[in-house]
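Changelog-linked ticket: PBG example.
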Amino acid sequence: MAEFNLTRRPRRLRGSHHLRSMVRETHLRRDDLIMPVFITHGENVRNEIPSMPDIYQYSLDEVDRELDALAEAGVHRVILFGIPSEKDPVGSDTFCDDGIIQRSLRHIRDRYDDFYLITDVCFCEYTDHGHCGVVRDDGTLDNDATLKNLQKQALSHAEAGADMIAPSGMIDGMIGAMRTALDKEGFSALPIMSYAVKYASSFYGPFRDAVESAPQFGDRKTYQMDPANRREARVEARLDVDEGADLLMVKPALSYLDVIADIRREFDLPLACYNVSGEYSLVKAAAAKGWVDETGIAHEKLLSMKRAGADLILTYFARDLAPSLDA
Ligand code: PBG
């Protein structure tokens, strides 16, 4: 006879790995992960990004190393970021048939038949001022002039063979503008994954090293969201849904799990989140010091994003974590 009569003993369901696996509510799968890839101009370039260990900028003649490693690890979805040879005030490399992303798309298409190619659609890596669009003389971002260039960029990526485009500039009306342009030119089947809820975050610091895109003046607070705001995330997401977004994204991920959970509850579209550069670097730095178990921490973080409601995760951990996951 037990001394205590506990009607509910949750530990009863934790007694063996079989049981734990049977009652597990959330699973992290290889297919949930999307790997960011940085492609730069020039030749023979394989630069490790100092603030992002194990992540490299590659020139096109070197990028197959990364793609081969990804294929080997079972990661077939990538999001491409470009670093052009020339930056200018409007980021014209982004809508030029010979731009770094357009050439990358064709290069990968020619060599590999099983990669799903998503392109980040923005201007900050391509403008000499580092802002995400056309800037007026007074330094403010010209929303509607930027929309026109976004249409050009979206079309140019579509023509070069993108499978999906992911606009990340937080420009009002960007989804509607791009959808209209794509539909008009025969790309009505091309999906748009909107960075619908993107905060003005300090967690992007290492990424800006990676693509050399830190703003030369000011900051991105007039277009990216205030980290203090939760309700506003729903306002942003609703606009993008109404304008025709096919998938939504919340970015960053780890400090915004409440927002991921809100968006999951409110909308039925597939939901991605971006486990951004700073979230990656913090783990790598602590692991390099031997303070934390890198794989354990990375897995637990990504699992928390799934548990909060994300379907897909853009993460720099994809390549290294995928082999330990089920498909
Ligand atoms: C904009 C863009 C950024 C990231 C993805 N797309 C940077 C920014 O808004 O400054 C950040 C990704 C990361 O930090 O990993 N093109």
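Closing comment: Example verified and attached. The longest helix spans residues 143-160. Residues 27-324 form a domain with the TIM Barrel fold (CATH 3.20.20.70).
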